[in-house]
Structures are given as C-alpha cells and as structure tokens.
Amino acid sequence: MTEFHLTRMGQQFYDKTAPELVRQLQRLNENLERRTADPDLRQATADLVAAAERVLDTEIVPGSKATIAAFRELRRAVREARDAMGEIGGPDRGKPDTESQKCPR
C-alpha cells in the first residue's frame, strides 16, 4: 500500500489543506483573544449568566411580579450583551424571527 504522503491527495493535504487549517486556527484564536480581552464584553457575559441563573432560580408563576422581574432582567442583560458584542454575529443575530417569539413587555 502506498504511503499517504506519497499520494496526490497526501501531497495536497500537506501542501495546502494542513497549512490552511493552521492559518484558520490562528485567526480563530486571535479573534477569540480579542473578544475575551474586551472588559465590556466580559462584564456583559457575566451579567447575562447571572440573570439567566436568577430566572432558573425563580419559581415561574405566570403573571407574578417575581417572574416578570426575572424575565425583564434577563431581557435587559441579553440586550446589553448583544450591544457589547457589536457586529460579531451580524446585524440580525439574536433578533426574533416573528412577533410571536418576542418577550412580553
């Protein structure tokens, strides 16, 4: 059986595919480092997690003040996190597709 590195596919893998994978991983790492270095994004993420945990800890009773307050806080945290993220996901990221998916006010 022929050694992989001696085949045309093996040569293409080592000459083009592997170096491109390394370049893409480097870009991904640089982008991730830039994003995690942003203190506003880190704070917004921490606030979002805390708000989500409060919703999970709240007994969900439709119409109750505690439920409404917890979901309002979560909605606020989501908006702040989205603002802190800027254009990471594009302009439509996280927006509801239909009116029925929107959170009640």
Structural write-up:
With 105 residues, the protein is mainly α. It folds into two domains: 7-37; 39-85. Helix content is 67%, strand content 0%. It has helices at 8-37, 39-57, 65-85. Helix 2 (39-57) packs antiparallel against helix 3. It is elongated and about 70 Å long. It starts with 7 loop residues before the first helix and ends in a 20-residue tail after the last helix. The relative contact order is 0.09. The mean pLDDT is 78.
Nutshell version of this structure?
With 105 residues, this protein is an all-alpha fold.
Strand segment count: 0
Q: Number of helix segments?
A: 3
Distance between the termini: 67 Å
Provide the domain count: 2
Average residue-wise pLDDT: 78
* Helix proportion: 55-70%
Q: Please state the CA-atom Rg, rounded to the nearest Å.
A: 22 Å
Overall outline: elongated
**Low-confidence runs of at least 5 consecutive residues:** none
Largest sheet: none
- Derived from helix and strand composition plus strand pairing, the structural class reads mainly alpha
Task: Give me the strand/helix succession.
Answer: HHH
Kindly estimate the percentage of residues that lie in beta strands according to DSSP: under 5%
List keywords for this structure.
mainly alpha; 2 domains
What is the topological layout?
Layout: H1 8-37, H2 39-57, H3 65-85
Helix pairs in contact: 2-3
